[in-house]
Amino acid sequence: MEKSLVKSLRVMEMLALSEAPRGVSDLARDLGYQKSNVHRILTTLVDQGYVVRFDVGPVYQLNYKMFEIGSRVVSRLRLSEVARPFLQRIVRATGESAHIMIYHNAEIIYLDKIENNAPIRASSEPGLRAPAYCVASGKALLAYQPDDEVRRVLRRVKTHTPSTITDPDRLRDEIQAVHASGYAINRDGWREGVSGAAAPVLVGRSHAIAALAILGPSDRMTEARLHDAGKFLSGIAKELSRKLGYDPDGTGLG
C-alpha cells in the first residue's frame, strides 16, 4: 500500500468532514501525522487545485474542484436511474413535473425528468443548464458549496427576468436558509412564468450531489404551494440521500 497516497486521502477526507477550514497543527493532531507531512501534503493539494489556502491562520479547505469531479462521477453512477422512483413519487404527490439536477461550475445541469399530465406544464430537457442563483435547485445546491465558491457565484449575478434576485445579501440569506428549511424556492428568476421548489440530495456527511425539484407555471405555483412542495421534497430528498449512503455522523470514515 502506498502510504503517502493513503495519508493524502486521509487529509482530504478530514477536510471534507470539517465544518470549517483547518490548520496544519490540528489536522496533524487529529490524524496522528507529523506536521511536516501534513504541510507537504496540503502544499501539493493546493498546487493541484484540490485545496484552497487562506492566509489568515493559515488554514485550508477543499476547493470546489472536488465538487466538480464529484458531479461528473455522480452522472456516471446512474444517479438518475436510482432517483427515478423518487421522481415518480414526486409527480404523483404534487402533480408537477419532477427533475433531478447536479451542480457544475456555477450552473445546474438537468439530469433527468418525469413529466406530469397537466395540459399546461413547465419542464426542462436533460442537459439544459441554468445559472445556479436563478433557480431553486441551484440555491439548494449552493448551500452546500464551499464559501469561496458561493462568493464567486454571487460576484457574477445578472438580471435574466424582472424577478431575478441580484442582491448578493438577499441571495446569500436564501442560500443559507436551506440548511434550516431543507429546501429552496424560485419565482420567475430564470424564466418568466416558471416557478419551482427544490431540496438537496446529500452523501457522505454533508455533501450535496444533486437536487430534486418540481417546476410549474407561476400562476399555479403560489407561494404557499411552493413552500408546501419544498417541505415534501425535503423529505423525499432525505430518503434518497439515505439510499445513496448519506452518513451525517461521519461514521463511514474508516
List keywords for this structure.
alpha+beta; Arc Repressor Mutant, subunit A; Beta-Lactamase; 2 domains; 6-stranded antiparallel beta sheet; two-stranded antiparallel ribbon; globular
Could you explain how this protein is built, in words?
With 254 residues, this protein is α+β, with helices and mostly antiparallel strands. It has two domains: 3-63, Winged helix-like DNA-binding domain superfamily/Winged helix DNA-binding domain (Arc Repressor Mutant, subunit A); 68-243, GAF domain (Beta-Lactamase), CATH 3.30.450.40. Helices cover 45% and strands 20% of the residues. It has nine helices and eight strands. The strands form two sheets. It has a six-stranded antiparallel beta sheet with strand order 5-4-3-8-7-6, sandwiched between helices. A hairpin with a 6-residue loop joins strand 6 (184-187) and strand 7. Helix 1 packs across helix 3 (35-47), helix 5 (79-94) runs antiparallel to helix 9 and helix 6 (136-142) packs across helix 8 (168-181). The longest helix is centred in the C-terminal third of the chain and has 21 residues, at 223-243. It is globular and about 60 Å long. 36% of the residues are buried.
CATH class of the largest domain: Alpha Beta
Largest sheet: 6 strands, antiparallel
Radius of gyration: 19 Å
Q: How would you describe the oligomerization state of the chains in this entry? A: single chain
Roughly what fraction of the amino acids lie in strands?
A: 15-25%
Show unreliable segments: none
- Class from helix and strand fractions: alpha+beta
What is the CATH architecture descriptor of the largest domain?
Answer: 2-Layer Sandwich
CATH T-level topology of the largest domain:
Beta-Lactamase
- Please count the beta strands (DSSP E, at least 2 residues each): 8
The rounded distance between the terminal residues' Cα atoms is 16 Å
State the strand order across the main sheet: 5-4-3-8-7-6
CATH superfamily of the largest domain: GAF domain
